[in-house]
Amino acid sequence: MIKNILKILKISFLILLVLILIGFLFEQIARFYFDSKRPDNNEFAKIDGRNIHYKKLGNGSCTIIFESGLGGDYLHWQEIQKKLSKKYTTISYDKAGILWSDSSKDISLKRYSNDLQELLEQTNCPKPYILVGHSFGGITPRFFIQKNKKDMAGIVFVDVSHPKQMKKSSEALRNSVQPPPRMLLSFLNEIGVIRILYSNVAFTSAVQKTHWFNQNVKNYFYRIFDGMMTELENDEKLMNEASQINDFGSIPLTVITAKYPNGVEGARDKELEYEYLAVHNALQIDLLRLSSNSTQIFATKSGHYITLQEPDLICNEIKKIAPR
User: How many CB atoms neighbour CB 227 within 10 A?
Assistant: First the structure.
């Protein structure tokens, strides 16, 4: 009996090793293919010895800057950027460690600001600026906004994070949004499990599985993973830094808040979902205090990804504050 059990375990272990090897090879082949689609060199700026990838479109007299959320890349904005580039200069980019941009050991709002400042100067983006941030993109550009107050024509925050959202949340809520250990996710990523997962399940149900956004996450998660996890592991530090920057003066500020008509995606505990929405909605109102010239708009048809579900709403709010 014991010999049979050991034999079964040995065979099972060998099968598992073979499957891991096949998954690893499959993942490496996929990466080789998608790496071959790297953008042209003229879409990169050299900043502090690192390559930062960007997409600049349009040639208007002011520049609309798109700041992505946690792990978000430049493609997140492609539909909105294309529409607005007909009238304005627009620029989206991959933050350090995300997609095509090199990583940085300096994780601070000052470094985020320096990267963006240098990028705008190297690409000759005209002032004034309108900064549009989504999710964690309400945290990372705060130092830049403070430093460039006189050159800011406006700010549009799209369901952005608040520096105090973790402190205002219960321990149960904080634990519910924590990802699995980085080492485990990294292993699953290396052997192709993440790619297989997102081939069968959409990253977000805000749009169809075949939507370019979900396809992009599936194809390039391996290039997003390290930067995303680095931001996650430093979110408390970055939020503490952001909380010290709480006065944008009289810069026009529009806070677009999602109404979550279908509830919070991924929420399984109704009590925690209610708590999340209560904290989120209260802090969205608190964001209005950042500027003496602020207003709140609701995205009634959207969850967190207003950028995908109601892009025209965002475009219209940007146009309202853009210089005539």
Answer: 23
Are 93 and 101 contacting, i.e. CB atoms less than 8 angstroms apart? yes
pLDDT tens by residue, the chain, 324 residues: 777 777 777 888 888 899 999 999 999 999 999 999 999 999 999 999 999 999 999 999 999 999 999 999 999 999 999 999 999 999 999 999 999 999 999 999 999 999 999 999 999 999 999 999 999 999 999 999 999 999 999 999 999 999 999 999 999 999 888 888 999 999 999 999 999 999 999 999 999 999 999 999 999 999 999 999 999 999 999 999 999 999 999 999 999 999 999 999 988 889 999 999 999 999 999 999 999 999 999 999 999 999 999 999 999 999 999 987
Going 203 to 207 to 209 to 210, the CA torsion angle's sign is negative
Rg (CA), the chain: 21
Burial 75-100 (b: 16+ CB within 10 A, else e): bbbbbbbebbbeebbbbbbbbbbbbb
Q: Is 177 exposed, middle or buried (0-12, 13-18, 19+ CB in 10 A)?
A: middle
User: Is the N-terminal amide bond of 128 cis, ω within 30° of 0?
Assistant: yes
Q: How far apart (Å, rounded) are the C-alpha atoms in residues 298 and 314? A: 11
Reduced to 3 states, what is the DSSP secondary structure of residue 266?
A: coil
Contact 87, 78 (CB under 8 A): no
- Cβ count near 106 (within 10 Å): 12
Q: If you write DSSP's letter for every residue of 190-217 in order, what string do you get?
A: HTTHHHHHHHHS-S-TTS-TTSHHHHHH
